[in-house]
Amino acid sequence: MRITVIIPTYNPNINRIHQTIAALKDQTFPHHMWELIIVDNNSSTNFTTDIDISWHPNRYIIKEDKQGLTYARLAGFKIAKGDIIIMVDDDNILEENYLVNVYEIFNSYPFLGAAGGKSLPIYESPAPVWLFQFESSLAIRNLGEEKIINKWENHFPYSSPIGAGMALRTVALERYISRIEIRGNNIITDRNATTLSSGGDNDIVIDILKSGWQVGYFPNLELKHIIPTERMKVPYLARLNHDTNKSWIILLQSHGINPWKKIPPQSVLPRKIKAWFTYKAWKNKGNYIKWKGACGMYEALSI
């Protein structure tokens, strides 16, 4: 059983991606038993000259011109040779036994299709108190010290793996990849240069669950997620909450599991105005960010 690590990236911060690569270099899992694929998602900078992966015997840098995290992941999936794929963001620092633990988990749970664990923050500057209520939007999670395993029950399990550090059994991706190829450009592209939409990782998880596989949370899978100062500011978080909520509804609708009723397009503006007062969006930063999230939901429900 081999492992493939895929790092999709777009104009990465060199300092952060250096930390990501250094943590991979320090993995206790032997280098010859896994491969490293970096996917340049049409970056405007030539960052590849600033990183060193010569230490790895099975390393590849490929380019995907279609903008969007989903396209970059797919490009990596198509050339991956591993039985297990681990998706690593360019600001993730994996704990040194991460690959070993993934290997052991998938050997121990033959019906497991996807696994994830803890994603703990490294704030590049002091985090304001009000920020912590939005940590899940920043791909920060800690569900405790007990493992949780789920199967498909016609809804999205709260403990499902998130994209950062998600490990996938390659054979369990078949349904997802086939569906994406059939739909062509009508897919959830996830984040790109112009939007902070998300849901691509959840789309993968739902297809894996619908295929009959299990997904799980394992606390011994731990990584650090670097949170830069600009992602702790109100304009970014407001946009993030808006785009994330909107794409979440669209994702649920695409799988027929959206619990909210559709709304008429002409009702969107009145609902936004009412929500402004319901959330008291003028009172503080947190309320304003939540209101922007509600606006994203209304827009999605009107489509």
From TrEMBL:
It comes from the Bacteria. SUPFAM superfamilies: Nucleotide-diphospho-sugar transferases (SSF53448). Pfam families: Glycos_transf_2 (PF00535). Signal peptide: none annotated. InterPro entries: Glyco_trans_2-like (IPR001173), Glycosyltransf_2 (IPR050834), Nucleotide-diphossugar_trans (IPR029044). Residues 4-117 form the Glycosyltransferase 2-like domain. PANTHER family: GLYCOSYLTRANSFERASE, GLYCOSYLTRANSFERASE 2-LIKE DOMAIN-CONTAINING PROTEIN. This is Glycosyltransferase.
